[in-house]
Design the sequence.
């Protein structure tokens, strides 16, 4: 069995199909780890959801910020699509309910304790180790199952800006969601900046890439993530970053998680689908 991690697909289903051919994916032996953001901005969000859902137990998927946005539009009255969204086809699909129900059941984090690998969409604040991040992700998952409208309706916003164990209710869930699906840079104390999208070198002190914080609690684990296309492929610092900007005209990238020396396998984008 091989475990393959795959970066943000964002509706680039043609590239995903080509990538699965390139890595010679075999459903009898292989497991696929998706970093989230299966949908949006790209041209084939519906086809992507159908394709990944059809992989059943062969696919482990964590939710990204675009996946959550799709769910919010579907479940929260009055929540509107943005001009740059490409989600109409999903919302109008005959199998919409089945697809959205499946997506709603995806976690925000997946932890393989035997291999000490953690899969998230974006990042972790310095205070969180892999086990704690997984526990906090489970809090969100339980709340989503209980009342998706309430959780999705209150998740938008940038505050609170720093983790506190005493956080409760909507603020606690919002911070967990923001960290796991939107984080790129933070301070050594764990204050987050959710609007930095540029390359890591453009972050000015005290801000730094979350995985560069000295003595972060998650350093003992390998963290696999996407979300940061301006960072691109990065293997080092105890992390594996896989968002290589397929939807922006870059590539869709996969890495064999069980071979630390294996080079990434990438499929160039057919076209720059995002805007």
Sequence:
């Amino acid at each position: 069995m091989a475990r393959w991690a795959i970066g943000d697909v964002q509706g680039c289903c043609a590239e995903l199909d080509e990538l699965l051919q390139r890595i010679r994916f075999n459903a009898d032996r292989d497991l696929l780890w998706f970093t989230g953001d299966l949908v949006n901005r790209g041209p084939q969000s519906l086809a992507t959801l159908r394709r990944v859902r059809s992989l059943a137990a062969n696919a482990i998927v964590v939710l990204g910020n675009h996946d959550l946005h799709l769910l919010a539009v579907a479940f929260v009255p009055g929540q509107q699509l943005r001009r740059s969204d490409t989600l109409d086809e999903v919302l109008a699909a005959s199998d919409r309910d089945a697809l959205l129900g499946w997506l709603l059941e995806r976690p925000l984090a997946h932890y393989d304790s035997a291999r000490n690998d953690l899969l998230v969409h974006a990042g972790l604040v310095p205070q969180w180790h892999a086990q704690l991040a997984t526990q906090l992700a489970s809090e969100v998952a339980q709340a989503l199952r209980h009342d998706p409208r309430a959780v999705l309706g209150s998740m938008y916003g940038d505050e609170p800006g720093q983790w506190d164990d005493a956080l409760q209710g909507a603020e606690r869930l919002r911070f967990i969601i923001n960290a796991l699906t939107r984080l790129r840079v933070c301070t050594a104390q764990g204050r987050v900046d959710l609007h930095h999208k540029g390359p890591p070198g453009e972050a000015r002190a005290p801000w730094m890439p979350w995985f560069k914080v000295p003595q972060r609690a998650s350093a003992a684990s390998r963290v696999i993530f996407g979300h940061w296309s301006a960072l691109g492929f990065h293997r080092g610092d105890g992390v594996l970053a896989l968002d290589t900007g397929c939807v922006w005209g870059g590539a869709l990238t996969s890495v064999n998680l069980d071979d630390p020396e294996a080079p990434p396998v990438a499929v160039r984008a057919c076209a720059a689908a995002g805007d």
